[in-house]
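Researcher: Batch entry, complex prediction.
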Amino acid sequence: MATELKDLTKRSENYSQWYNELVVKADLAEQADVRGCMVIKPYGYAIWEKIQHILDGKFKETGVQNVYFPMLIPKSFLSKEAEHVEGFAKECAVVTHYRLKASEEGGVVVDPAAKLEEELIIRPTSETTIWNTYRKWIHSWRDLPVLCNQWCNVMRWEMRTRLFLRTSEFLWQEGHTAHATREEAEERAKQMLKVYADFVEQYMAIPLIQGVKTATERFAGALDTYTIEAMMQDGKALQSGTSHFLGQNFGKAFNVQFVDKNNQLDYAWATSWGVSTRLMGALIMTHSDDNGLVLPPHLAPIQVVIVPIYKGSEGLAHLDSKLNALAARLRERGISVKYDNADNRRPGFKFADYELKGVPVRLVMGERDMAKGTIEVMRRDTLEKEVVPFEGIEDYVEKLLEEIQQHIFVKAKTFLDSHIYPCDNYAEFKERIKDGGFFLCPWDGTAETEAQIKADTQATIRCVPFGVDQSNPGTDMVSGKPAKFKVLVARSY
RNA sequence: CGGGGUGUAGCGCAGUCCGGUUAGCGCACCUGGUUUGGGACCAGGGGGUCGAAGGUUCGAAUCCUUUCACCCCGACCA
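Model: C-alpha cells for the complex:
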C-alpha cells in the first residue's frame, strides 16, 4: 500500500502528493500509458457527465447550439492569426504521415512514401477551424449571431502534466460565437462568464473571484479574457474557466465578412469560452479532506449510500426488503441512491470506501436499529453521525443534502474570504506570498512590474477583479508609480 | 532544454556498496473456513526475461560498457 491520505498530515507541504493519491484512490483517474494523458475511470467520468449535462442545459438556455468540428486542423490555418499561432505553436502535436508499413526487423515503421503534403495539427483549440467554416455560413447580418458550442477533446503538448489540472489531452467544451456588433460580442463574453460562475458556485460549491486578465495573461488572439479564479486549500489559485472577447481578429484572419443593416461590409465579431476537466481538479482540491473526496450533493453521482449490517442470510433478507423499499422511495424524490448489500466487503470497508469517494450521505441500518425503529445517518462533510427515527427519513435526507450543499460552499467561501489580503508593501508581499493566499494589490498597469513580481515570487496577476472599488487604487507596490487598478495576485497552478 | 532521481510480481519496496542455494517482504489476487455496528482473521495457493543489449566470471539483480523508459524541480499552460 502506498501512503494513506491521513498520513499526509502536513497538507501544505505534501499538497501535491495528497492530491495525486486522492485522485487515484478515489477511483477517478490514472496516468495513461501515453505520455501526459490520463485515463478517466467510470466514477470520475460520472462526475464529468453531470458537469456536462448541467452546463449544456445552461448554454442552451442562452440560445447556444451544439456542433462538432474535426480534430485535425491544417497547419496553415494556425498561422492566419499571428498572436494565436505564437500562443499555441510550441505545444502542438503534428500529424505528418497517413500510413505505416511492416518493417524488415519486425514491427511497423512510418511509411516515408505516405508523407502528407500539408501537415495536420491535432487541435489545441478550434478557433481557426471553426472560423474558417464560419466564412461559409455568414454573409448577412441576418445570419448573425452564430452561437455554437462543442464538447470535445483537445491536445496540448504541455511540458509538465498533472491529472485533471494539466494533461496533454483533456476534455472540454468550447463555445464560439459570431456577432454583428462589438457590443453584442462583449456582452456575450461576459454573459458566458456569468453562466460559468453561477454553475461553479451553485453546483460545484466552489466560491470564485471573477475578473479580467491583464494583457500578458490574455488568451492568444483575444482583446479581453474574462476569468473565474478559485482558491485551492493550499492558497494557490486555479483558473477554472475563461471567456474571451476576440474582437474582429478571427473575422479578419479568416475573412468572415457580412453586410450589415446599412449595406456596409464588416467583419464579424467573435467570442470563445471554455471549461475543461480541470474543473474536476478544482472540485477535488477545494472540498476534500484527509478521508478522501467530499462531493457537493448537486454533483455527486451517488448522493446517498445505504449499508445494511447483518448476521447470516436471513438477517440480510429482512433488511433487504426494508432498505430496498427505502431506496425506491428516495429515488422517487430524484435522489441518486446506492444500496450496497454486497456480501464480499465488510461494513467497515464500505464506510471507508464511500467516504473516499465523497458520497454525501450514508445511511446504516442493523439489527439494533430494526428493533428500535431507527437508522444511522452520517454526513460526509462533517463526518457527524446521528441516529434518527426511520419514519420520515426521506424528508430528513432530502433536507440534509441541501444543507450539505450549502455548508461546503460556505466553508469554502469563508476560507477564500479569510485568505484575501489587501497589500501595498512589496517587502511584506514577498514574505507573505510564500504561505499562499490572494493579494489585492495596487498595480501601475505596466508589463514590467508584472514581470518583476513573477520573477521575484512566481506569483502572477490573476485578474483585475470585478466588484472592487477602483476609484482610488493607490500606489504600485513595486514601481512606486500611481496605480491604475487594484489587482489580484497569487501563485497558481 | 537545464538540474536531481528511479527502473526487481498488479501496486509499494528490500536485496546491489562487498557476485555464491530455488530472488524476498507488505498490500492486492485465487481456494476453503470462520466472520460482519469503522478498512476482518486463519490455512493453503498462483504470479518474476530483476528496464533492454553486450561484456567480465565456474557463477551476475549485484561488477563494466552502451542504451531505453519513467518520475521530481525549473521555463509553458485550461
